[in-house]
Amino acid sequence: MPRLNENYLNVQDSYLFAEIARRVKSYEEAHPDKAGNVIRLGIGDVTRPLTKSAVDALHKAVDEQASAETFKGYGPEQGYEFVRRAVADYYGRNGVSVDADDVFISDGAKSDTGNITELFAKDNVILVPDPVYPVYVDTNTMDGKKIIYMNGTEENDFLPMPDHSVKADVIYLCSPNNPTGACYSKAQLKEWVDYALANEAVILFDAAYEAFVSGAELPRSIYAVDGAEKCAVEFGSLSKTAGFTGTRFSYTVVPKELAFLSSNGEKMSLRDMWNRRQSTKFNGTPYIIQYAAERVFSEEGMKECMENIAYYMENARVIAETLRKKNIPFTGGVNSPYIWFKCPNGMESWELFDYLLENIQVVGTPGAGFGVNGKNHFRLTSFGTHEKTKEAMERFDRLF
Ligand code: MLT
User: Whose CA is nearest to atom 5 of ligand 1?
Assistant: First the structure.
């Protein structure tokens, strides 16, 4: 009989968004007359189709795969150089220097932020914010690692800062934040980098929502801070930036400067370890997707993405305006596609989830799914259509 990984007993039965989908499905089955009326502003899934640049490139790459002269099989394990360069150029245009050699192409920030836990020994102290994207917690729990939490609350604008009495080895940060939409300033990120360097810790920085930052004031990458290349890994994705939630493309930057001493005094390079892990367990993102991604990172490609982002940010404005009208405190909605608000009338978040579903057929994400500090908060996404977002907020306005 196999002995199973009993750490799985310590994670919830189902992943947050799978649980929400299950509850919505069972509501729809119980109320078939209302099923067509449900508006989904829960999971952060996009509704705009792929941009023209991406679609044209996908067609071209499929044609290449149809011809013996241009057909491609397995690609380079780290990703094609043309797309790693395009990622590095994209960073460069945003004022940050990243070496294409340190860029690893993958199929999603969810996979990479989850898989990277394997590089760290079991006895590391893992520091995560609460509220938090559940993948960081679930994957470390599955691995049997010790997690400590730092509180994100209204008092600190949901932006926890280093506590020097806490000695962490691995720190997860996400900015613009999922779920709260809060963004760290450059000075705040510098404090985190200084903490990590002083404690020989590593920061795992999730930048999946960087494209939603407008203006040059707020950093879109932790590498905007000097010294971050010595202590931080960064995860980026085209899921929300270019509508690739179903197409799948992400990139992870593991700078060659990142190295830590092993117990026998040998220096181990995190970049080499990630390369070893990926080349052993992953055969790469499909060629056609990498080809399309390269076009997305071009100036023209990004311009088209920014039009879609502006579309979503208009939804964020509509959501924020309704909350303001109701005097409901919230964060996000600017520089972020997520709006994180205090549940009205003292409700708890799962209670509000049921209340909204039953009364106005609007689906959101209960804050409790992101940690104890989310117990009385709720997340709405701006990734819906204009029509449905407006309709959802009109229903919300009438309900409260
Ligand atoms: C979210 O809605 O927070 C995520 O983007 C969905 C996921 O990746 O799990």
Answer: 44
Give me the pLDDT at residue 45, please: 96
Identify the sign of the CA torsion 241, 243, 245, 247: negative
pTM score of the predicted model: 0.96
| Helix H or strand E encompassing 33 | helix 32-35
* 203 CB-near residues (< 8 Å, 6+ apart): 171, 172, 173, 192, 193, 196, 222, 228, 231, 232, 233
Nearest to 333 by CA among 214, 164, 230: 214
Ligand 1 centroid from CA 234, angstroms? 17
> Which residue's CA is the nearest one to ligand 1's atom 8?
110
DSSP per-residue letters across 295-325: HHTSHHHHHHHHHHHHHHHHHHHHHHHHHHH
Kindly give the pairing relationship between strand 39-40 and strand 232-237. Answer: unpaired
Atom of ligand 1 nearest to the CA of 239: 5
Strand partners, 235: 206, 252
Peptide bond into 179 cis (omega under 30): yes
CA distance 228 to 220: 13
C-alpha of 133 from chain center? 7
Strands 170-174, 125-130: pairing is parallel
For ligand 1, whether the C-beta of 240 sits within 6 Å is no
Q: Is 21 in the pocket of ligand 1 (CB under 6 A)?
A: no
CA distance 160 to 150: 6
Question: First and final CA of the chain: distance in angstroms?
Answer: 56
Express each pLDDT in 133-184 by its tens digit.
999 999 999 999 999 999 999 999 999 999 999 999 999 999 999 999 999 9
208-214: average pLDDT: 97
